Amino acid sequence: MALRRSVAREIVDGAPFDASTNDDDWLGHGIYFWEYAPQQAWWWARRRYGDAEASVVRAMIRLGRCLDLLDPGNTMLLQQAHAKLSAALVATGQALPRNANNHKYLDCTVFNYLYARLDGLGHRLDSSRAVFVPMRAGKGMARLWQRSGVFEGGHIQLCVREPRNVLAVWSVRKDGRYGKDEAAPEEPEEHQDDGAH
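The chain above was modelled as a monomer; its predicted structure follows.
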């Protein structure tokens, strides 16, 4: 997870996570993690917070009841939620939100709608998991070469809805290994001779 350095320290020391509630969170509202992708997290942290303030933590997460979108049955469930939400909004004269390349307003609305419906039926989801393939402005998906099935920047993201399922958290160094980066050594203080012996 990419964070501001001060927030990362607090979380590693035991402070609770704040769930993201942006209206364009592509997997709906929750706590977001990259799955096994510390360098992806560092790239994003530097982009968002700058090199001096960027930090990354790793976590042990119990997925619990997970909407895993690598499972085709779960994608059908999400498609059904989209159809029901669309019909409900049309019936009330409202328009569905629209997605943009980097802002997934519709995705967020559909996921939150599905979560609310399942919560109401007593089937609360603890997490969701999906592959994200970024788009390049005006160029589509960043394939490694023509018609490649591998995409630059593609990664798996987790959205944890149940904070208790984050079991442990620790710092990640800039090289992706566990632990804190070593601080730069401090300059030794110069000894000033005050003349007293």
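Residues 72-91 form the longest helix (20 residues).
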